[in-house]
Specification:
This protein is of the alpha+beta class. 18% of the residues lie in helices and 31% in strands. It contains 2 helices and 7 strands.
């Protein structure tokens, strides 16, 4: 009986197969804000139960601060029957080609450098990347 209830709850939480994914709208908004291709942005899956086909999503990102990592986002869903507002905190990864160490190096030895794909939220330091200009 409990298993049947759990399966029914999971089925009810899944969006209709042709419903647009709100995570795609968040991905596109982050890419537009940073001026990077949408393929360089990954957003954790956002499921909005009962989102019917024809739902359009408007995304409000925070006005300041980075838009990668755990980001507070306001989603507005417009359907033929009305509008709904959701506040979510998806995980957003923004990938860039940045200089990285090519190999482990001993202390004091020169560090060989190459370019590699790095998620910006994994960088440490004070403002390690300025997203408004390419890496120099």
């Amino acid at each position: 009986m409990l298993l049947a209830l759990l399966l029914a709850a999971v089925a009810a939480a899944e969006p209709a197969p042709d419903a647009p994914a709100p995570s795609d709208a968040v991905r596109d908004a982050v890419a537009a804000r940073l001026g990077v291709p949408a393929g360089d942005v990954e957003v954790s899956t956002l499921v909005v139960p009962g989102a019917p086909a024809g739902t359009t999503w408007q995304v409000e990102l925070p006005g300041v601060g980075p838009v990668w990592g755990s980001v507070p986002v306001v989603l507005r869903a417009t359907t033929p029957t009305g509008t709904s507002r959701y506040v979510v905190r998806p995980y957003v990864a923004v990938w860039k080609d940045l200089p990285v160490a090519a190999a482990p190096t001993a202390a004091g030895a020169p560090v060989p450098v190459t370019t590699g794909r790095v998620a910006l939220d994994r960088l440490r330091g004070e403002d390690p990347v300025d997203p408004t200009r390419p890496w120099e």
